[in-house]
Amino acid sequence: MYRDYLQGFPCSSNTLLRLGFMAKSDWIDLTMAHALLFLLFLLPLSIAAQSNGTIALGKSITANTDAADPWLSPSADFAFGFRQLEDPNLFLLSIWYYKIPDRTIVWFANEGVPFSSGSKVELTSDKGLVVTDPKGNVLWESEGILNEVAYGFLNDTGNFVLMGSDSLSQWESFEYPTDTLLPTQTMKSGLVLYSKRSVTNFSQGRFQLRFQDGNLLLNTRDMVSNLAYANYYTSNTSDPSNPSNSGQQVIFPDTGYMYILRENGVRFNLTPRTINFPASDNYHRATLNFDGVFVQYAYPRSSSTGNTNWSVVWSEPDNICAAIGGGLGSGACGFNNICSLGDDKRPICQCPPGFSLMDPDDKYGSCRPNFTQSCEEADVNSAADVYDFSTLVNTNWPTSDYEHLKPLTESQCRNNCLQDCFCAVAILGGDECWKKKLPLSNGIRDSSLNNKAILKYRKVDVPPSNPTTGPPTIREKKDRESIIVVGSVLLGTSFFVNLVLVGAFCLGFFFIYRKKKGLPTSEISLRSFTYKELDVATNGFGEELGRGAFGIVYKGVVQMGGSRQVVAVKKLDRVAQQKEKEFKTEVNVIGRTHHKNLVRLLGFCEEGQHRMLVYEFLTNGTLSSFLFGDTKPSWNLRTEIALGIARGLVYLHEECTTQIIHCDIKPQNILLDEYYNARISDFGLAKLLRMNQSKTVPTTIRGTKGYVASEWFNNKPITAKVDVYSYGVLLLEIISCQRSVGDLENGEVEKAILTDWASDCLEEGKLEALVENDREALDDWNKLMRFVMVAIWCIQEDPSFRPSMRKVIQMLEEVIEVNRPPCPTTFSSTT
User: Fold this and answer.
1) Cα–Cα dist 817/793, whole Å
2) Residue 683 · residue 650 · CB < 8 Å
3) How far from chain centre, in Å, is Cα 725?
4) Among positive and negative, which fits the CA dihedral 12, 16, 18, 22?
5) Nearest to 782 by CA among 809, 754, 817, 822
6) What is the rounded distance in angstroms from the CA atom of residue 390 to the CA atom of residue 394?
7) What's the sign of the alpha-carbon dihedral 186, 192, 196, 201?
8) What is the mean pLDDT of the chain?
9) How confident is the model at residue 304 (pLDDT cuts 50, 70, 90)?
10) Cα separation of 430 and 83, whole Å?
11) Mean pLDDT, to the nearest integer, of 402-415?
12) How far is it between the farthest Cα atoms of the chain?
């Protein structure tokens, strides 16, 4: 008997042998001790079980710590109680998934308005759930209680039910949904889900999910009057001509396959039947997200799958930026904001140049202009002295038109808007010009638009990314007048005083000039990160953005300048162990670069064997993904990108204090910012990684197959002309949307080497084949021909035949004439 009892405990054989000589009374004491330990072990489990989800009258929870003593469902899948928000003094009364690490909230009380610390929720017989503040004042209570409540019950579906003494439900959370539907929940006619205001603000937002007149609908609304604006999604399950075929209710069964049940019993599937997220293995929920996209998610019940995130099962609409295309309201983003679609079909909102967020914490909100547009100034000054334009491609606010002009050239469209004091932006498409005034609504950026948005701004409020030149502005005129006054004063003083004042004036003017031009008054200071900081920032280097010749890039979030900033962290895996001074010297060279077509370096890590660089994160990914995706980008945008890359290379080659040769120009190293401006990355790394090598003759071939100049193979000195060669190959890729090295197995051998094929197309007069009948490019024949000829000049085998990057820009912009290039000497850069 004793031996059988002891088999349940982890005792060694020697321990058992010693126990065998114990007296009988000792055995009794031992048994009681283990029984006591066993009961102590079970005590927390019994508390957590909480009588199988049943909550008795008088039970309460006080908001004082995160999820303090929540009430759990029988399986502990769900919890009910207070959740602490970012402000430690604010708590949300809510229901959440208890076993999932991020404790996803699926229901909340009081329309998302939080309660203060010390508030208490109590289960009462007459009012059901009642929330009071520390002074006993009632803040919220479950509505619609008609009979006496006997007890509460949180079941394993996430539904909190208040049961009456007659065993009938008096109130349940499923009847008062917030932003989420759960399996076994139904949505009857008239029921509404509201989105949250933002990720962290649970108050009701701008978006609604409604079931009305047989249709499931998504719409925006006016948040003051709750007036529903036009629908941007409808299930089309209403049939006025045959009411029995109209939708009756939305059903979310425990299988996870959501559908609309028609009056005649026929199902209209919402969850595609091809989706395989079995409910036996996954939790499910369907949430109207704060950005207006309705998404069904699945999360594995077992952590053994390795997946620790909610997976998207299906979502509506496919493109919310385009779906909310008109009518009242601001659109998917706030007024004057621009919506573009992310890879996850969720909207990305960004203010245009010259505008900033009204609420810096709400990037999906409205943007305000950084200047006051006025018609009075036009009476005093010519419009050209006061205003200029910045240009955005493939951008529009389609519902803000007040005048349509046709036919107009781009220059005429600009001048017309310039002279019109009401015009805030002009949209140019073909030979048509649409003028718009503030506020702008339903802003969208999409490559299918194929247009230009020309935004007006005051010259004294120059957007950082849009430097201008031209006649002196009002402020510049005032500055000049001040200089004249100061000069007059100097003439009337003694020589010594004049000398002192002149010196002070020059020094002050120097700093003012640098400030006005946006130049640094001291050397840019890069932030030095510790390895631990970047490990935490990247969540253990968990989200990989890409990898290349220099290392792997990870996405992270760091604290900089008092705010959180998304960054790209590059772990350098081939850096020689240089002296600390050498490494920091080269990193500082990179850090001192500042140009709108370069990716900005924010900091570095140099700790032990770890060498890392921290860059700004750019939202639109690589040029490679942009060019070689399913849809061919517009010709105008492609040519703008090509010019941006060229300008960045001119800066690296000629305008930096220290010349930087990139050595690996390719589409994977060109990133696109929120306005699709090209930004060169990885510059300076070639030198950083070969500090111990010769600076004139290469000992190791650098670069990527398809983009490598002949110098690398011929043991010739490496100059900036290797970047010119790579740029020529890249320019051909931009023109044709074809990769530099094709797939030899696809049967099109003549296209396998892009440089050879492009040269043949030029020689044989078959450029239409190179662009695959791209109508937009063919309609711009002169530019197409010019760009191809410039690219062929760049890929000449003899470096002396290749133009400098400055001359490349002059040829692309038609500043100088482009002669027909010779056929490049046969050279296989793929060797």
Assistant:
1) 13
2) no
3) 33
4) positive
5) 817
6) 13
7) negative
8) 81
9) low
10) 55
11) 93
12) 116
Q: Are 603 and 614 in contact (CB under 8 A)?
A: yes
Q: DSSP character for 244?
A: G
Residue with tokens 């007059």: 488
Nearest-angstrom CA–CA distance, 454 and 417: 9
* CB neighbour list of residue 681: distance below 8 Å, 6 or more residues apart: 598, 599, 615, 669, 670, 671
Strand, helix or coil for residue 413: helix
Helix or strand run (H / E) with residue 673: none
User: What's residue 590's pLDDT?
Assistant: 86
Q: Which residues pair with 552 in a beta bridge?
A: 547, 571
Q: Which two tokens stand for residue 77?
A: 């899948």
Phi, psi angles (nearest 5°) of residue 233: -150, 140
DSSP class of 750: G
Q: Is residue 455's pLDDT more than 70?
A: yes
Is the distance from CB of 442 to CB of 326 less than 8 angstroms? yes
State the Cα–Cα distance between residues 724 and 732, nearest whole angstrom. 13
Residues labelled as active-site residues: 664
Q: How crowded is residue 330: how many other Cβ atoms within 10 Å of its Cβ?
A: 24
What tokens were used for 821?
């290039």
Least-confidence region, from 34-38, 122-126, 302-306, 404-408: 34-38
CA dihedral 433, 436, 441, 447 (to 10 degrees): 20
Structure tokens at 131: 């929330």
d(CA 783, CA 375): 39
Q: Which of 759, 636, 622, 725 is nearest to 678 (CA)?
A: 622
Residue 240 CA from chain centroid, whole number:
42
- Whether the CB-CB separation of 662 and 708 falls below 8 Å is answered with no
Dihedral sign of CA atoms 13, 15, 17, 23 in order? negative
The answer to whether 63 and 120 are in contact (CB under 8 A) is: yes
Helical H segments across 91-134, by residue range: none
The span from the CA of 102 to the CA of 634, in Å, is 41
Helix (H) or strand (E) holding 484: helix 474-491
Q: In 3D, which of 296, 315, 288, 269 has the Cα closest to residue 219?
A: 288
Q: Which residues pair with 65 in a beta bridge?
A: none
pLDDT in tens, 786-820: 999 999 999 999 998 999 999 999 999 988 889 99
Question: 0.85 exceeded by the pTM?
Answer: no
CB 463 within 8 A of CB 477: no
- 3-state SS of the chain: helix, strand, coil percent to 5? 30, 25, 45
**Which tokens is 173 given?**
């959370």
Helix axes 474-491, 495-516, angle to 10 degrees: 170
Q: How many CB atoms lie within 10 A of CB 234?
A: 14
β-bridge pairing 71-72 and 367-369: unpaired
Q: Are 459 and 386 contacting, i.e. CB atoms less than 8 angstroms apart?
A: yes
Number of residues that make up the chain: 831
Could you tell me which residues come within 8 angstroms of residue 811 by beta carbon, excluding any fewer than 6 positions away? Answer: 786, 789, 790, 793, 803, 817, 818
Listed residue (818, 753, 824) closest to 789, CA to CA = 818
Token code pair at residue 67: 């999820």
- Sort strands 527-528 and 601-607 into parallel, antiparallel or unpaired: parallel
Separation of alpha carbons 340 and 674, rounded Å: 9
Distance, CA of 604 to CA of 611 (rounded, Å) = 7
What SS3 state is found at 735?
Answer: helix
Do β-strands 115-116 and 105-108 pair in parallel, antiparallel, or remain unpaired? unpaired
Nearest to 712 by CA among 697, 726, 724, 723: 697
Express each pLDDT in 318-353 by its tens digit: 999 999 977 788 999 999 999 999 888 899 999 998
Task: Give the C-alpha separation, 730 to 633, whole Å.
Answer: 15
- SS3 label, residue 406: coil
Closest CA to 195 of 332, 366, 326, 342: 332
